[in-house]
UniProtKB/TrEMBL annotation:
PANTHER family found in the cross-reference section: ALPHA-L-IDURONIDASE (PTHR12631), BETA-XYLOSIDASE-LIKE PROTEIN-RELATED (PTHR12631:SF10)
Protein name per Swiss-Prot or TrEMBL: Glycosyl hydrolase family protein
Gene3D superfamilies assigned: Glycosidases (3.20.20.80)
Keywords in alphabetical order: Hydrolase
Molecular function (Gene Ontology), one example: hydrolase activity, hydrolyzing O-glycosyl compounds
GO BP, one annotated term: carbohydrate metabolic process
Domain of life assignment: Bacteria
The keyword Hydrolase belongs to this UniProt entry's keyword annotation: yes
Coiled coil: none
SUPFAM superfamilies: (Trans)glycosidases (SSF51445)
Family matches, as Pfam families: Glyco_hydro_1
Length: 418
C-alpha cells in the first residue's frame, strides 16, 4: 500500500542540510551480490537507525530502497520495505535525499552495458516518484564516474570489463539513465531537486614526464558531469569518446539539456580522492594535497551550480583521526563560505559502519570498516559525538548566511497522498 501518512513535513526545507546516509551499495562481484544494507544490519534495524539520525541532529538522510529487491522486473515492484521506511522518515521530519541506484542493478537487467538500462531505470524512477510524491530531493544515480571505472575499466564490479570501450559504454548508459530519470521524476514532481553525488578527484604529476597523463586524467574526471549537464568536453576527450563507442549523435544528445537548473552539484571527497601520477602512468594515493575547498572551486568554476558536500569519512581510530578529518572538512566548507561558491549542505557518510570497503567490496571478508557515526552495535563513535556537537553549534548560524545567497532550493510543499 502507498504511504498514506497525512501529517505534512515542515512547510519549508532547511537551507542548510546536515546529512548522513545509509550505505546501500549493491554491485555484483562475480557470482555474489554485495548488499551493504544487509551487511550493516539496517534491513532489520532501520527503526533504530532512523532514531539515531534524529539523535545526531541531522535534518537530511541520503537514503534509498535496495534496488535489486525492490525492482523485480519491467513494471514490477515490491514496495513493502520502501513504504514502511519512507513513511517513517516522513513522520519524523527527516528530509530524504533519495538514492535510487547505488553501484548495482537487478540481475534481470544484467549490468551497465545493457543499452535498455536508461529507459528501464527511468520507468522505475517514475514509479517511485508517483508512489511518494512528497519526496523532492533525489540522487538518481550515485557516483556515475566511479561506477563506470570500477565496472567497465577496472574489472571489479558488475560487467567486470577492463577496456576503454567498456568504460565509455557504462558511462553513457549511467549518465543517460540519470538524465532520463530526472525527466521522469520532473513529470511527477515539477519542483524536484537533484543532488548529484559524484566523486571529486584531483591528479598530481610526480614529474614532468607524468604531466600529460595527469592533465588527461584531470579532464576525464569531469566526464560524467560534463555529459550530465551538457558541458562541452575538451577536444582530446571528445576524440577518446568517439574512438571508444560513443557516436556523434549520442554526444550531441548529451549536449542538449535543460535539466541543469534543477540540479545541485553533490561532491564526495575522501583522503583517497587525490592521486599522484607516475611516469609509467600508474597512480597512487597522494593524500589531501589541495584539499576539498581548492578542488571544489574548480568544479564550481566549470558548472556554476550550488554545491553540497555529499560524502566523506575516515576510520575512527584511537588517535581521533576521524574527528580531526571531520573538523578539517568543516574548515574547508567554512573557507568556501568566504567565497562566492554557494554551499548548502554537508554529509558524513555513513550513519553506521560499513563492511569490506577496504577492498572496494571485491573481497568477501566481513571486515567492519569503522567509518560510521555509530558502530555495528549502534553505539556512538567519537566522530558521531563530534558531528552531533558540530550540528548543535552551527545549525542556527549557517542558514541565515545561505539566505543571502538566494539558493534555488525550493520549499518542500505540504502535499499529502490520497
Amino acid at each position: 500500500m502507498p504511504d498514506t501518512f497525512r501529517d505534512p513535513l515542515p512547510a519549508a526545507a532547511p537551507l542548510f542540510l546536515f546529512a548522513t546516509g545509509i550505505e546501500n551499495s549493491n554491485p555484483r562481484v562475480g557470482d555474489r551480490r554485495v548488499d551493504q544494507m544487509a551487511a550493516s544490519g539496517h534491513l532489520q534495524r532501520w527503526r533504530e537507525d532512523f532514531a539515531l539520525v534524529r539523535e545526531t541532529g541531522c535534518n537530511a538522510l541520503r537514503y534509498g530502497p535496495p534496488l535489486p529487491t525492490t525492482w523485480l522486473g519491467e513494471g514490477r515492484y515490491d514496495w513493502d520495505f520502501a513504504d514502511e521506511t519512507m513513511a517513517a522518515l516522513r513522520r519524523q521530519g527527516t528530509y530524504p535525499i533519495v538514492d535510487l541506484c547505488h553501484f548495482g542493478v537487478p540481475d534481470w537487467i544484467g549490468d551497465f552495458q545493457n543499452p535498455d538500462f536508461p529507459r528501464l531505470f527511468a520507468d522505475y524512477a517514475a514509479a517511485f516518484a508517483g508512489r511518494f510524491p512528497w519526496v523532492q530531493l533525489y540522487t538518481p544515480v550515485n557516483e556515475m564516474y566511479v561506477c563506470a571505472l570500477f565496472s567497465g575499466r577496472y574489472g571489479w564490479w558488475n560487467e567486470r570489463l577492463s577496456s576503454e570501450r567498456g568504460f565509455v559504454t557504462a558511462m553513457k548508459h549511467l549518465v543517460g539513465a540519470n538524465r532520463m530519470a530526472m525527466r521522469a521524476i520532473l513529470r511527477q514532481r515539477p519542483d524536484a531537486i537533484f543532488i548529484q553525488s559524484e566523486s571529486a578527484e584531483q591528479y598530481h604529476a610526480a614529474s614532468p614526464r607524468a604531466w600529460a597523463e595527469a592533465r588527461r586524467r584531470n579532464s576525464e574526471r569531469f566526464l560524467s558531469l560534463d555529459l550530465n549537464y551538457g558541458h562541452p568536453v575538451e577536444a582530446p576527450m571528445y576524440e577518446y569518446l568517439l574512438d571508444n563507442g560513443m557516436t556523434r549523435e549520442e554526444y550531441g544528445a548529451f549536449q542538449s539539456t535543460d535539466l541543469k537548473r534543477h540540479c545541485v552539484l553533490g561532491t564526495d571527497y575522501y583522503v583517497t580522492n587525490e592521486h599522484l601520477v607516475m611516469e609509467d602512468c600508474s597512480t597512487r594515493a597522494s593524500g589531501d594535497v589541495y584539499g576539498y575547498a581548492t578542488i571544489i572551486q574548480q568544479y564550481y568554476a566549470r558548472y556554476h551550480l550550488p554545491l553540497m558536500h555529499t560524502e566523506t569519512n575516515l576510520v575512527d581510530d584511537l588517535h581521533g583521526s576521524a574527528e580531526n578529518w571531520l573538523w578539517k572538512q568543516w574548515a574547508n566548507l567554512l573557507l568556501l563560505w568566504e567565497t562566492p561558491v554557494p554551499v548548502l549542505g554537508f554529509t558524513w557518510f555513513s550513519l553506521v559502519d560499513q563492511v569490506d570497503w577496504d577492498t572496494a567490496l571485491r573481497e568477501d571478508n566481513g571486515r567492519v570498516n569503522a567509518v560510521g557515526l555509530y558502530d555495528m552495535d549502534r553505539q556512538p563513535r567519537q566522530v558521531g559525538r563530534a558531528y552531533q556537537r558540530l550540528i548543535e553549534q552551527w545549525r542556527d548560524v549557517l542558514p541565515a548566511r545561505s539566505l543571502c545567497l538566494q539558493l534555488p532550493l525550493l520549499p518542500l510543499t505540504q502535499e499529502v497522498m490520497s
